[in-house]
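Protein entry
_____________
===
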Amino acid sequence: NTDTMDFNVKKLASDAGVFFTRAVQYTEEKLGQAEKTELDAHLENLIARADCTKNWTEKIFRQTEVLLQPNPSARIEEFFYEKLDRKIPSRTTNAELLGQYMQDAAKEFGPGTPYGSTLITVGEFQRRLGGAEREFLQMSAINFLTPLRNFLEGDWKTISKERRLLENRRLDLDICKARLKKAKLAEDKAAAGHELRAAQTEFDRQAEVTCLLLEGISSTHVNHLRCLHEFVEAQAAYYLITVYTVPGMDPDWLIGERGNQKGKVPVTYLELLS
Protein backbone atom coordinates (compact mmCIF):
# COMPACT_ATOMS: atom_id res chain seq x y z
CA ASN A 1 0.00 0.00 0.00
CA THR A 2 2.84 2.36 0.89
CA ASP A 3 4.50 1.61 -2.48
CA THR A 4 1.22 2.38 -4.28
CA MET A 5 0.87 5.65 -2.36
CA ASP A 6 4.47 6.59 -3.20
CA PHE A 7 3.83 5.79 -6.87
CA ASN A 8 0.61 7.86 -6.90
CA VAL A 9 2.34 10.83 -5.23
CA LYS A 10 5.24 10.62 -7.70
CA LYS A 11 2.83 10.36 -10.64
CA LEU A 12 0.86 13.33 -9.32
CA ALA A 13 4.05 15.36 -8.95
CA SER A 14 5.18 14.31 -12.44
CA ASP A 15 1.79 15.23 -13.99
CA ALA A 16 1.82 18.57 -12.17
CA GLY A 17 5.35 19.20 -13.45
CA VAL A 18 4.35 18.46 -17.06
CA PHE A 19 1.25 20.65 -16.72
CA PHE A 20 3.33 23.51 -15.28
CA THR A 21 6.00 23.28 -18.02
CA ARG A 22 3.31 23.32 -20.71
CA ALA A 23 1.61 26.29 -19.03
CA VAL A 24 4.91 28.21 -19.01
CA GLN A 25 5.55 27.38 -22.70
CA TYR A 26 1.99 28.41 -23.65
CA THR A 27 2.26 31.72 -21.73
CA GLU A 28 5.65 32.55 -23.26
CA GLU A 29 4.26 31.86 -26.75
CA LYS A 30 1.34 34.21 -26.11
CA LEU A 31 3.78 36.89 -24.94
CA GLY A 32 5.96 36.32 -28.00
CA GLN A 33 8.88 35.09 -25.86
CA ALA A 34 8.97 31.51 -27.21
CA GLU A 35 8.92 29.94 -30.66
CA LYS A 36 5.86 27.93 -31.70
CA THR A 37 5.71 25.07 -34.20
CA GLU A 38 3.01 25.88 -36.74
CA LEU A 39 0.69 23.16 -38.03
CA ASP A 40 0.83 22.50 -41.78
CA ALA A 41 -1.65 24.40 -43.97
CA HIS A 42 -3.73 21.29 -44.81
CA LEU A 43 -4.31 20.51 -41.13
CA GLU A 44 -5.11 24.17 -40.36
CA ASN A 45 -7.72 24.19 -43.16
CA LEU A 46 -9.27 20.97 -41.85
CA ILE A 47 -9.48 22.45 -38.34
CA ALA A 48 -11.13 25.65 -39.64
CA ARG A 49 -13.64 23.58 -41.66
CA ALA A 50 -14.41 21.36 -38.65
CA ASP A 51 -14.97 24.38 -36.36
CA CYS A 52 -17.27 25.94 -38.96
CA THR A 53 -19.22 22.66 -39.28
CA LYS A 54 -19.59 22.32 -35.50
CA ASN A 55 -20.74 25.93 -34.98
CA TRP A 56 -23.37 25.86 -37.73
CA THR A 57 -24.57 22.35 -36.87
CA GLU A 58 -25.13 23.54 -33.29
CA LYS A 59 -27.09 26.62 -34.44
CA ILE A 60 -29.22 24.62 -36.90
CA PHE A 61 -29.84 21.93 -34.26
CA ARG A 62 -30.93 24.45 -31.59
CA GLN A 63 -33.21 26.38 -33.96
CA THR A 64 -34.81 23.18 -35.32
CA GLU A 65 -35.52 22.18 -31.71
CA VAL A 66 -37.25 25.55 -31.16
CA LEU A 67 -39.23 25.12 -34.41
CA LEU A 68 -40.41 21.62 -33.49
CA GLN A 69 -41.02 22.36 -29.82
CA PRO A 70 -41.44 26.09 -29.02
CA ASN A 71 -42.20 25.34 -25.34
CA PRO A 72 -38.86 25.54 -23.41
CA SER A 73 -40.08 23.48 -20.42
CA ALA A 74 -41.25 20.70 -22.77
CA ARG A 75 -37.81 20.76 -24.45
CA ILE A 76 -36.09 20.40 -21.06
CA GLU A 77 -38.39 17.47 -20.20
CA GLU A 78 -37.51 15.77 -23.50
CA PHE A 79 -33.80 16.41 -22.85
CA PHE A 80 -34.01 14.57 -19.50
CA TYR A 81 -35.83 11.63 -21.10
CA GLU A 82 -32.99 11.35 -23.64
CA LYS A 83 -30.29 11.54 -20.96
CA LEU A 84 -32.03 8.76 -19.00
CA ASP A 85 -32.27 6.70 -22.23
CA ARG A 86 -36.02 6.52 -21.91
CA LYS A 87 -38.62 6.82 -24.69
CA ILE A 88 -40.12 10.31 -24.91
CA PRO A 89 -43.87 9.98 -24.34
CA SER A 90 -45.98 10.86 -27.38
CA ARG A 91 -47.39 14.32 -26.67
CA THR A 92 -50.94 15.26 -27.71
CA THR A 93 -50.77 18.22 -30.08
CA ASN A 94 -52.81 21.39 -29.50
CA ALA A 95 -54.91 20.69 -32.62
CA GLU A 96 -55.74 17.17 -31.41
CA LEU A 97 -56.77 18.57 -28.03
CA LEU A 98 -58.93 21.26 -29.69
CA GLY A 99 -60.57 18.59 -31.87
CA GLN A 100 -61.33 16.49 -28.80
CA TYR A 101 -62.89 19.49 -26.99
CA MET A 102 -65.04 20.31 -30.04
CA GLN A 103 -66.33 16.75 -30.30
CA ASP A 104 -66.99 16.55 -26.55
CA ALA A 105 -68.87 19.88 -26.75
CA ALA A 106 -70.97 18.54 -29.66
CA LYS A 107 -72.14 15.65 -27.50
CA GLU A 108 -73.28 18.14 -24.83
CA PHE A 109 -74.99 20.52 -27.29
CA GLY A 110 -76.56 17.67 -29.25
CA PRO A 111 -74.91 16.23 -32.38
CA GLY A 112 -78.18 16.68 -34.28
CA THR A 113 -78.13 20.50 -33.95
CA PRO A 114 -76.47 22.60 -36.72
CA TYR A 115 -73.80 23.83 -34.25
CA GLY A 116 -73.22 20.36 -32.78
CA SER A 117 -72.90 18.58 -36.14
CA THR A 118 -70.48 21.26 -37.42
CA LEU A 119 -68.39 20.95 -34.23
CA ILE A 120 -68.13 17.19 -34.88
CA THR A 121 -66.92 17.80 -38.48
CA VAL A 122 -64.44 20.56 -37.60
CA GLY A 123 -63.28 18.61 -34.54
CA GLU A 124 -62.45 15.62 -36.75
CA PHE A 125 -60.43 17.84 -39.11
CA GLN A 126 -58.55 19.36 -36.14
CA ARG A 127 -57.69 15.88 -34.90
CA ARG A 128 -56.40 14.87 -38.33
CA LEU A 129 -54.31 18.06 -38.56
CA GLY A 130 -52.91 17.36 -35.09
CA GLY A 131 -52.09 13.77 -36.02
CA ALA A 132 -50.22 14.97 -39.13
CA GLU A 133 -48.30 17.48 -37.00
CA ARG A 134 -47.34 14.78 -34.48
CA GLU A 135 -46.13 12.52 -37.29
CA PHE A 136 -44.03 15.39 -38.72
CA LEU A 137 -42.51 16.18 -35.30
CA GLN A 138 -41.60 12.54 -34.67
CA MET A 139 -40.10 12.00 -38.14
CA SER A 140 -38.08 15.23 -37.91
CA ALA A 141 -36.74 14.34 -34.46
CA ILE A 142 -35.67 10.85 -35.59
CA ASN A 143 -34.35 11.63 -39.09
CA PHE A 144 -32.88 15.11 -38.61
CA LEU A 145 -32.35 16.12 -34.97
CA THR A 146 -30.92 12.79 -33.75
CA PRO A 147 -28.10 12.57 -36.37
CA LEU A 148 -27.10 16.20 -35.66
CA ARG A 149 -27.10 15.52 -31.91
CA ASN A 150 -25.06 12.32 -32.43
CA PHE A 151 -22.41 14.34 -34.29
CA LEU A 152 -22.23 17.05 -31.59
CA GLU A 153 -22.18 14.61 -28.66
CA GLY A 154 -20.16 11.82 -30.31
CA ASP A 155 -17.84 12.60 -33.23
CA TRP A 156 -17.19 16.18 -32.15
CA LYS A 157 -16.16 15.17 -28.61
CA THR A 158 -13.68 12.65 -30.06
CA ILE A 159 -12.27 15.28 -32.45
CA SER A 160 -11.94 17.82 -29.59
CA LYS A 161 -10.15 15.28 -27.37
CA GLU A 162 -7.61 14.43 -30.10
CA ARG A 163 -7.09 18.12 -30.88
CA ARG A 164 -6.32 18.84 -27.21
CA LEU A 165 -3.86 15.95 -27.27
CA LEU A 166 -2.25 17.37 -30.43
CA GLU A 167 -1.86 20.78 -28.76
CA ASN A 168 -0.17 19.09 -25.77
CA ARG A 169 2.18 17.15 -28.08
CA ARG A 170 2.97 20.41 -29.89
CA LEU A 171 3.78 22.17 -26.60
CA ASP A 172 6.01 19.23 -25.54
CA LEU A 173 7.81 19.42 -28.89
CA ASP A 174 8.51 23.15 -28.52
CA ILE A 175 9.65 22.67 -24.90
CA CYS A 176 12.19 20.10 -26.19
CA LYS A 177 13.32 22.47 -28.97
CA ALA A 178 13.88 25.24 -26.39
CA ARG A 179 15.84 22.84 -24.12
CA LEU A 180 18.14 21.82 -26.98
CA LYS A 181 18.82 25.49 -27.78
CA LYS A 182 19.71 26.22 -24.14
CA ALA A 183 21.90 23.11 -23.66
CA LYS A 184 25.61 23.96 -23.31
CA LEU A 185 27.32 20.67 -22.35
CA ALA A 186 27.70 17.89 -24.94
CA GLU A 187 25.86 15.30 -22.80
CA ASP A 188 23.00 17.77 -22.16
CA LYS A 189 22.78 18.40 -25.90
CA ALA A 190 22.70 14.64 -26.61
CA ALA A 191 19.95 14.06 -24.01
CA ALA A 192 17.93 17.06 -25.30
CA GLY A 193 18.37 15.83 -28.89
CA HIS A 194 17.07 12.38 -27.95
CA GLU A 195 14.05 13.93 -26.16
CA LEU A 196 13.37 16.16 -29.18
CA ARG A 197 13.34 13.20 -31.61
CA ALA A 198 10.91 11.30 -29.36
CA ALA A 199 8.68 14.39 -29.02
CA GLN A 200 8.73 14.92 -32.81
CA THR A 201 7.63 11.29 -33.38
CA GLU A 202 4.78 11.67 -30.86
CA PHE A 203 3.69 14.96 -32.42
CA ASP A 204 3.75 13.57 -35.99
CA ARG A 205 1.75 10.51 -34.94
CA GLN A 206 -0.88 12.63 -33.18
CA ALA A 207 -1.07 15.05 -36.14
CA GLU A 208 -1.82 12.07 -38.40
CA VAL A 209 -4.59 10.75 -36.09
CA THR A 210 -6.15 14.23 -35.82
CA CYS A 211 -5.93 14.74 -39.59
CA LEU A 212 -7.75 11.45 -40.30
CA LEU A 213 -10.54 12.35 -37.87
CA LEU A 214 -10.92 15.84 -39.36
CA GLU A 215 -11.08 14.44 -42.90
CA GLY A 216 -14.15 12.51 -41.69
CA ILE A 217 -16.04 15.85 -41.65
CA SER A 218 -16.64 15.29 -45.40
CA SER A 219 -18.66 12.16 -44.54
CA THR A 220 -20.50 14.20 -41.89
CA HIS A 221 -21.59 16.69 -44.57
CA VAL A 222 -22.82 13.85 -46.82
CA ASN A 223 -24.74 12.28 -43.91
CA HIS A 224 -26.28 15.59 -42.82
CA LEU A 225 -27.29 16.35 -46.42
CA ARG A 226 -29.25 13.07 -46.55
CA CYS A 227 -30.89 13.93 -43.20
CA LEU A 228 -31.78 17.40 -44.51
CA HIS A 229 -33.55 15.84 -47.52
CA GLU A 230 -35.56 13.63 -45.15
CA PHE A 231 -36.49 16.65 -43.02
CA VAL A 232 -37.72 18.59 -46.08
CA GLU A 233 -39.69 15.57 -47.32
CA ALA A 234 -41.39 15.22 -43.90
CA GLN A 235 -42.16 18.96 -43.87
CA ALA A 236 -43.57 18.91 -47.43
CA ALA A 237 -45.73 15.85 -46.62
CA TYR A 238 -47.03 17.58 -43.49
CA TYR A 239 -48.04 20.78 -45.31
CA LEU A 240 -49.62 18.76 -48.12
CA ILE A 241 -51.74 16.83 -45.61
CA THR A 242 -52.75 20.02 -43.77
CA VAL A 243 -53.91 21.68 -47.01
CA TYR A 244 -55.97 18.71 -48.21
CA THR A 245 -57.42 17.92 -44.77
CA VAL A 246 -59.25 21.26 -44.62
CA PRO A 247 -62.86 20.83 -45.91
CA GLY A 248 -63.20 21.36 -49.66
CA MET A 249 -59.46 21.42 -50.34
CA ASP A 250 -59.10 18.20 -52.32
CA PRO A 251 -56.16 17.56 -54.71
CA ASP A 252 -58.18 18.35 -57.88
CA TRP A 253 -59.18 21.87 -56.84
CA LEU A 254 -57.39 24.97 -55.59
CA ILE A 255 -58.73 28.27 -54.28
CA GLY A 256 -58.15 30.93 -56.95
CA GLU A 257 -58.51 34.73 -56.92
CA ARG A 258 -59.08 37.17 -59.79
CA GLY A 259 -59.71 40.81 -58.93
CA ASN A 260 -62.27 40.79 -56.13
CA GLN A 261 -63.56 37.32 -57.09
CA LYS A 262 -62.50 34.22 -55.15
CA GLY A 263 -63.46 30.58 -55.68
CA LYS A 264 -62.43 26.98 -56.31
CA VAL A 265 -60.58 26.37 -59.59
CA PRO A 266 -59.76 22.94 -61.11
CA VAL A 267 -56.00 22.23 -61.07
CA THR A 268 -56.20 21.05 -64.73
CA TYR A 269 -57.48 24.52 -65.73
CA LEU A 270 -54.50 26.19 -64.02
CA GLU A 271 -52.13 23.73 -65.76
CA LEU A 272 -53.65 24.66 -69.15
CA LEU A 273 -53.08 28.35 -68.41
CA SER A 274 -49.43 27.79 -67.51
Summary: The domain at 39-273 is CATH 1.20.1270.60 (Substrate Binding Domain Of Dnak; Chain:A; Domain 2). The chain has two domains: 1-34, 39-273.
